[in-house]
Design brief:
Distance between the termini: 24 Å
Number of domains: 1
Radius of gyration: 15 Å
Helix content: under 10%
Shape: globular
Number of helices: 1
Structural class: mainly beta
CATH architecture: Sandwich
CATH topology: Tumour Suppressor Smad4
Order of helices and strands: EEEEEEEHEEE
Strand content: over 45%
Number of strands: 10
């Protein structure tokens, strides 16, 4: 499996590094800019990235614009259950091997493994291909 290698710069200037084989969210789902970066198709039990492939050396990202009203955000997340959430004019998606964002106000970053960091000013994400392997022994 691939891992996301993440570097966070907090509001006090500290740099925090974290690695996860799942996903991370940046910001608040219902207000402001909101980002999801994932090496998997599923995020919190919802198939957000239908074209994502594990272990392809890339990750996918989604951005909900701060201009998206709360009512549309609720509907957007409701439609992720049936994979009819895209396209949407205020949602952008992409894929790649690097992702960088700086913020004017501190944001919260949450990881699939339960780790959360608040007051983050800058996020950098890279990918480490084939960071872990699964071996099933023969019987």
């Amino acid at each position: 499996l691939d891992s996301l290698v993440v570097s966070l710069t907090t509001s006090d200037g500290a740099v925090v590094r974290h690695e996860t084989s799942g996903w991370l969210t940046i910001g608040h789902r219902y207000r402001g800019d909101f980002f999801v970066v994932s090496s998997l198709s599923f995020v919190r039990g919802r198939r957000i990235f239908s074209r994502a492939h594990p272990n392809d050396g890339r990750f996918d990202w989604l951005c909900l614009s701060r201009a998206m009203p709360i009512r549309q955000r609720v509907g957007f997340w409701r439609r992720t259950r049936t994979e009819t959430h895209l396209p949407h004019p205020l949602a952008q998606t992409g894929s790649g091997t690097t992702f960088e964002r700086a913020f004017v106000r501190p944001v919260r970053v949450s990881f699939s493994d339960g780790v959360t960091h608040g007051r983050v000013m800058e996020v950098r994400v890279g990918i480490r291909a084939d960071s872990s392997h699964t071996h099933i022994p023969a019987q």
